[in-house]
Design brief:
The chain contains 7 helices and 3 strands. By secondary structure, it is α+β, with helices and mostly antiparallel strands. The protein folds into 2 domains: 70 residues, Arc Repressor Mutant, subunit A (Orthogonal Bundle), CATH 1.10.10; 46 residues, no CATH class. A hairpin with a 2-residue loop joins strand 2 and strand 3. Helix 1 packs across helix 3 and helix 2 packs across helix 3. The radius of gyration is 20 Å and the shape is elongated. The C terminus is likely disordered. It binds iron/sulfur cluster. The site of iron/sulfur cluster has 11 residues, from helix 6.
Length: 146
């Protein structure tokens, strides 16, 4: 795997786990990469202002807690970074779309505006929309900026 693909894999993992404490000493194991490669790439990503590393001691050993800097990622014009962010956002949007209650609703074939089953008055759909709006407002920083 070349440097750009490895960096992309790391960035996508960090975005998907945003808000979780990710330690450098665990990251390479979780991704099945070499410790040395991950260390070099994280250092470079930090120099580029895409992530932040905070020194911590875990189980008696020095390591770093890694935080992804979402705003810098979104504003980056580096092709590799843009691709990683794009793939992450696409996966997130697809997962959100697959979660819509209509996809598993037994009444979908009888549901239309003005009908007995009506999307305008549907409790399941309205709850889903409200839940998604609430989630976006609270901290789902990247999708909220779409
Ligand atoms: S709007 Fe409600 S009733 Fe209609 S298909 Fe979606 S979940 Fe089912």
């Amino acid at each position: 795997m070349d440097r750009e693909s490895t960096a992309g894999k790391i960035l996508e993992f960090l975005l998907e786990n945003e808000g979780r404490d990710i330690l450098q000493s665990d990251l390479w194991k979780e991704l099945g990469l070499s410790s040395k490669d991950v260390s070099k790439i994280l250092k470079k990503l930090e120099e580029e202002g895409l992530i932040k590393r905070e020194p911590v001691v875990y189980k008696g050993r020095k390591t770093y807690k890694i935080m992804v800097l979402s705003d810098s990622l979104l504003n980056s014009d580096k092709i590799g970074v843009t691709r990683s962010v794009g793939r992450y956002l696409m996966r997130k949007l697809v997962n959100e779309a697959l979660d819509i209650p209509c996809l598993s609703c037994p009444y979908i074939s009888k549901c239309y505006e003005g009908g007995f089953y009506d999307p305008v008055n549907c409790q399941f759909l309205n709850e889903w929309i409200l839940r998604n709006m609430r989630d976006r407002k609270q901290g789902a920083s990247l999708p909220a900026q779409l």
